[in-house]
Amino acid sequence: MIEHKGDLWTSVFETDHIIGISTNGFRKLNGQAVMGRGCAKQATELWPGVAKRLGAYLEAKGNVPGYLLDPSGYGIIEKLLILPVKHNWWERASLELVTASRTFLCGEAVHHPEVTFHVPRLGCGNGRLDWATQVRPLMEILPSNVVVHH
Q1: Which residues form the domain of 88?
Q2: Torsion sign over Cα 46, 51, 56, 62
Q3: Core vs surface per residue 64-83: b (16+ CB within 10 A) or e
Q4: What is the spatial distance between Cα 127 and Cα 3, in angstroms, rounded to a whole number?
Q5: What's 95's domain CATH number?
Q6: Inter-axis angle of helices 50-61 and 38-46, to 10 degrees?
Q7: Suppose 32 and one of 51, 73, 94, 134 were both cysteines; which one would form an S-S bond, judging by CB atoms 3.0 to 4.6 Å apart?
Q8: Domain count of the chain?
């Protein structure tokens, strides 16, 4: 893992770079995912319709890590990695979900060493977890093709 002070989104259009965002598992009555803060909100500003697509993902797969694929295969959104850190948007982040997301990310990074994965400090912004004492120790096993932005 490499820690980098800077914008998570600077590499979004580069080949062999994947952006991971922290998410929650809550869906509104209209089926859209709640993406109102942090990097999830930034994703909605980059890709209108991403909340609807994440809502469908949550309905189909549950609140689990994975890729939010563009069904056409042509949008940059196909490179968006979903990393759940909360069950509900109003809750504190769950170390169990952070660990599951970290494990998925680690597997992807090990199996795809040619790809650089860019992620935020999972659960540390609106999730209110402490990076130094709670999350960083979990993330230290990540390989060097994972860049954690802050």
Answers
A1: 2-149
A2: positive
A3: ebeebebeeeeeebebbbbb
A4: 19
A5: 3.40.220.10
A6: 120
A7: 51
A8: 1
Q: What is the dihedral of CA 87, 89, 45, 136, to 10 degrees?
A: -70
Per DSSP, the three-state class of 50 is helix
- Compute the CA torsion angle 27, 28, 32, 33 (nearest 10 deg): -40
pTM of the model: 0.91
> How far is 82 from 47, CA to CA, in rounded Å?
14
- The pair of structure tokens assigned to 118 is 């860019």
Q: Measuring CA to CA, which residue among 82, 80, 83 is closest to residue 94?
A: 83
Q: What is the pLDDT of residues 64-105, one digit of tens each?
A: 999 987 655 545 556 789 999 999 999 999 999 999 999 999
Q: What are phi and psi for residue 44, nearest 5 degrees?
A: -65, -30
Within the chain, residue ranges assigned H as helices are 38-46, 50-61, 95-111, 136-139
